Amino acid sequence: MITLTEENYIKAIYHLSKQGAENVNTNALAEAMNTKASSATDMIRKLSEKDYANYKKYKGVTLTETGKRIAINIIRKHRLWEVFLVEKLNFTWDEVHELAEQLEHIKSQKLIDELDIFLGHPTHDPHGDPIPNKDGEITYVEKTLLSQAQVNLRYSCVGVNDSSSEFLQYLNNNNISLGSIIEVMHIEPFDKSINIKANGKLLTVSQSVAKNLYLKKL
Amino acid sequence: MITLTEENYIKAIYHLSKQGAENVNTNALAEAMNTKASSATDMIRKLSEKDYANYKKYKGVTLTETGKRIAINIIRKHRLWEVFLVEKLNFTWDEVHELAEQLEHIKSQKLIDELDIFLGHPTHDPHGDPIPNKDGEITYVEKTLLSQAQVNLRYSCVGVNDSSSEFLQYLNNNNISLGSIIEVMHIEPFDKSINIKANGKLLTVSQSVAKNLYLKKL
DNA sequence: ATAATTATTTAGATTAGTCTAAAAATATAT
DNA sequence: ATATATTTTTAGACTAATCTAAATAATTAT
């Protein structure tokens, strides 16, 4: 039986190895898990004993195929629950993340299969992230960070990189949501802040905002 | 912060004190929790330190008002989730109990409020048990065990005492569900088995079945 | 009312996950 | 290439929830 803590470490390893080097550092993992490096070392050892992770002392950790399968399944559950909360229970996109962190650990294959059917097999969660299918396949759509976007082109908003409620509320306050039309007007060379037209309204956003908003060319 | 284990002990104390003496014995609690008496003693002490329970050594345990509030809230969540699973996700009444045991521990007031709205404020779960309202009020309807029913009267099935999947599947196999019409034909003096007409079909049920089926006089 | 039985508590150990502090390995800078 | 800094691991301790075995209290039977 896999514990809740093990699941959370596996998920963290998965996410970290997606957004950086394949091998995840002990310190990075500890940071992501809000624990100390020594705790992470212990858990890494345990995961490798259970054959969820590959571990060579001092060389970081990667997930085994089993570990990856577990991670993707948790992510599938997390994202399906987010869709449920937003579409059926009137939650907003900035409210669902923490709650989905609880719901993703509920163990029942039938539950998740039926939830998927009930929601009509959604392909993306409320933040634009793809929902892995039953076989663990993930369809990535091409997307560009606003920070990489070109001046004078028109885009639509397809996702966020940071799904913290702080960032999402910032977007709410500026009327930006999935599907919003974003036009890049000007990039300020000094601080890389960007003037955009979001749903027709002029707005200046900082680099750190621009690095967290995903767009698709129209 | 209350732990999952504490919640489960509180729930067990609540159920035991409903169906027996107000003061719950250490052994009875240990049995219900599938642990040893010594573990129950430790937990009882912990619950009383946290002011969820009243405890006098050797005298059994009762819940404080706080403890009762917690228990009722868990039961409310459990039963709402059961309704959700049956009404929205095509689960059958014999499949939902264990899964609801997981879901009942999800912590979010908004989730449960919205689920209640989404389900249309149901008053009973799929086994006929009443769902406490937001204020913790429980409306009990009058009901009789089949074992207490009178010969030649007509009843409808309004609930079960044992909601194990084994018992519920027995009922499924005999076409009995909530709302079924039950007519008591004859009680066998020797072993107290009962001849009934269930939805028009003759059937003999044992005492142990009869003690787990709740009826309402028609 | 005393003995026998049963119920409950205490004492001490175990496991999972965490911590701090110290040791060891690796990486970086001069 | 050697010293310094950083990262990682090890050692030992702590808490929550559990266990077994022993001790104590309460109940029941004679």
Characterization of the model:
Two copies of one chain form a homodimer. By secondary structure, chain A is α+β, with helices and mostly antiparallel strands. Among the domains of chain A are: 4-63, Arc Repressor Mutant, subunit A (Orthogonal Bundle), CATH 1.10.10; 144-217, SH3 type barrels, CATH 2.30.30.90. Chain A contains eight helices and eight strands, in the order H-H-H-E-E-H-H-H-E-E-H-E-E-E-H-E. The first copy, chain A, has helices spanning 4-18, 26-33, 37-49, 65-88, 96-103, 109-118, 165-173, 207-210, and strands spanning 53-55, 61-63, 144-145, 154-160, 181-187, 194-198, 201-205, 213-217. Chain A is globular. The termini of chain A are far apart. The mean pLDDT of chain A is 96. Chain A binds chain B through residues 85, 88-91, 95, 99, 102-103, 106-108, 110-111, 114-115, 118, and chain B through 85, 88-91, 95, 99, 102-103, 106-108, 110-111, 114-115, 118. Chain B binds a DNA duplex (30 and 30 nucleotides) through residues 3, 5, 25-27, 35-43, 45-46, 57-58. Chains A, B: In the presence of manganese, represses expression of mntH and mntS. Up-regulates expression of mntP.
User: Would you count the extended β strands of chain A for me?
Assistant: 8
Secondary structure category of chain A: alpha+beta
Reading side by side through the largest sheet of chain A, how are the strands ordered? 3-8-4-5-6-7
Low-confidence stretches of chain A: none
CATH architecture of the domain at 144-217 in chain A: Roll
Largest interface: A-B, 17 and 17 residues
- What is the helix tally of chain A? 8
CATH class designation of the domain at 144-217 in chain A? Mainly Beta
**Any idea what the shape of chain A is?**
globular
Q: Any idea what the radius of gyration of chain A is? A: 19 Å
Distance between the termini of chain A: 47 Å
Average pLDDT confidence of chain A is: 96
Q: How large a portion of the residues of chain A is in β-strands, by DSSP E?
A: 15-25%
Question: What is the fold named in CATH at topology level of the domain at 144-217 in chain A?
Answer: SH3 type barrels
Oligomer: homodimer
Instruction: Please summarize the sheet with the most strands of chain A.
Output: 6 strands, antiparallel
CATH superfamily of the domain at 144-217 in chain A: Ferrous iron transport protein A (FeoA)
User: Helical percent range of chain A?
Assistant: 40-55%
SSE order of chain A in H/E notation?
A: HHHEEHHHEEHEEEHE
